[in-house]
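SAMPLE LOG
Freezer: B-3
Tube label: C17
Construct: single chain, 82 aa
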Amino acid sequence: MKVRTAARQSGVGAALLDAARAKTQQRGCLRLILLNGREPNAYRNRFHQSAGWQERTSMADSVHHLEAVAGSQPPVDEESVP
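STRUCTURE (predicted):
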């Protein structure tokens, strides 16, 4: 999920995190995991930490890109997501 620039600082991001937390608790989940780059404003501004998320520096974030299968959706370039 990503909040559009125009909607930032309006409580939308916090509401999305709260809704995700409530839904997963209803389903009996014990934890949520957030993958976030260290460059976005949300990271630099400590948005997630202020909402109760704890950064685990011991975790690695790795990606292995696969070739598209014929007839499947084209891969999404993370930089082009609005």
